[in-house]
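Our preliminary data section would be incomplete without showing what the modeling component actually yields. Below, a chain of 127 amino acids is followed by its predicted structure, encoded as tokens that our downstream tools consume directly.
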Amino acid sequence: MLNAIHHTALICSDYQRSKHFYSEVLGLTIISEYYREHRDSYKLDLALPNGSRVELFSFANPPARLSHPEACGLRHLAFSVTNIDDVVSKLTTQGIEVEPIRVDELTDKRFTFFADPDGLPLELYEE
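Predicted structure:
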């Protein structure tokens, strides 16, 4: 049946700001970038080291996403990391607010949350 998650698609409010955040701040590799003139929309394909992808889309005037209080639907996007302290340090030195690191009571793994430029909750999960 299912093998893995191939990609996660995100719609951003400011394409250049989000492109910088996902490629420069988080370090995802740009695979391809398309401008779809008929939709006045960009599509940016980004890769993580394990081959999974993030697709970043821009659309004119997308509605805001309700994050707080938590709404029904996608709750957050979690990234696996080897050393959470190193990643948190890199993010905070770039001015990204990161919640205190917690320990998952079910797995004893460390994790934390931060947000992308549009407030989408992102998680770091140490493996």
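The mean pLDDT is 91. The helical segments are 15-25, 84-93. Preliminary results of this kind motivate Aim 1 of the renewal.
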